[in-house]
TrEMBL record:
GO biological process assignments: sodium-dependent phosphate transport
InterPro entries per UniProt: Na/Pi_transpt
Any one Gene Ontology molecular-function term assigned to this protein's record: sodium:phosphate symporter activity
Coiled coil: none
Designated name of the protein: Uncharacterized protein
Lineage: unclassified sequences, metagenomes, ecological metagenomes
Species, as recorded: marine metagenome
Segments crossing the lipid bilayer: 12-33, 53-77, 130-149
A GO cellular component annotation in the UniProt record: plasma membrane
Cellular compartment(s): Cell membrane
Main location: membrane
Keywords: Cell membrane, Membrane, Transmembrane, Transmembrane helix
Length: 171
């Protein structure tokens, strides 16, 4: 009984330690991006001012990294460091959600020589694709037209933490 309790306590401490290290990593990423300089930030802001380009940057970077979590963490660090604004980050995160589906398709294609197994694997992979693409097809135009996600995220940030980077809540 005592041994199980000790394992539970150690696992809980391990989870919080990993979470702490993750947050320290995000802080380090943010500091590193700040040190890249104004020209780097200006180039990113100029490039991501077009939401379609930002969407494709998210798709491409996630396809390269094979991890939407890595891409999203980089985007959060860039927003935190001031190299990227929230308006440019939202389409990039949407693109990351589409880009993450490429891995599933690649894995399903690995089963191409096994008839029914390939059909099931490909069907499961495309469910993920369709869901992410449909969400982007619905939310992307709404975000471009009304800024719903940006306003919601800024509102939550202000509600939970006070002023968010000096930005107005609702422009």
């Amino acid at each position: 009984m005592k041994n199980e309790h000790l394992k539970t306590v150690l696992k809980t401490i391990g989870v919080f330690l990993c979470l702490y290290l993750f947050l320290v990593g995000i802080k380090g990423l943010s500091s590193g991006i700040k040190n890249l300089g104004g020209e780097f930030a200006e180039n990113i802001l100029t490039t991501t001012s077009n939401p379609f380009i930002a969407l494709f940057i998210g798709i491409l970077s996630t396809t390269i990294f094979q991890s939407s979590s890595t891409t999203t963490s980089l985007i959060v660090g860039m927003v935190s460091g001031g190299a990227l604004n929230l308006t440019g980050a939202i389409p990039m995160i949407m693109g990351a959600n589409i880009g993450t589906t490429v891995t599933n398709i690649i894995v399903s294609i690995g089963h191409i020589n096994r008839g029914n197994e390939f059909k099931r694997a490909f069907a499961a992979a495309t469910v993920h694709d369709f869901f992410n693409v449909l969400v982007v097809l619905v939310m992307f135009p709404i975000e471009i037209a009304f800024g719903l996600l940006e306003k919601t995220a800024t509102g939550f940030g202000t509600l939970l933490f006070g002023s968010v980077s000096g930005n107005e809540v609702f422009k």
